[in-house]
Specification:
The chain is an all-alpha fold and about 140 residues long. The protein has 5 helices and no strands. Helix 2 packs antiparallel against helix 5. The chain is elongated, with a radius of gyration of 17 Å. The N and C termini lie far apart (about 65 Å).
Amino acid sequence: MTDRLPDATDVPGALVDATAPAGAIPLPARFARPTLLLETLLATRLELLSRDHPWPPHTLAQRRAVLMRLWEQRAPGLFEQDGTAESIERCLQAAFAEAAAGRRLEAALQFKRAYYLVCCTASSSSRARLHGSHNGGNNGLPG
């Protein structure tokens, strides 16, 4: 039986299942949903903030592998407009660099920025699809 610390934070399955080496985890053929990426970003940020000390190197490597794998599995084209993908990647890289340096708050801020970029882009895409379907499939454009 595993003892659970009273202040332990639940994490999504994507983080829990990432204990195997990166090469041992098969990549699914389908694309990751933005909601899974959002959930994992939020859980990672909350876990980082709930600690009184920096992540050990193996935890940092695991979290990086999971988040970057989810990012690489994103739906094609969703984040590619106006440099959004590059901005999200910069936030993720900065977050892990800050975490590696022991700067938890700065890392959490970068995860938060990435979260908002993913969230805003995904919701904007959903609205565009919704309006496109009501306007005769004209991608939300009149006429």
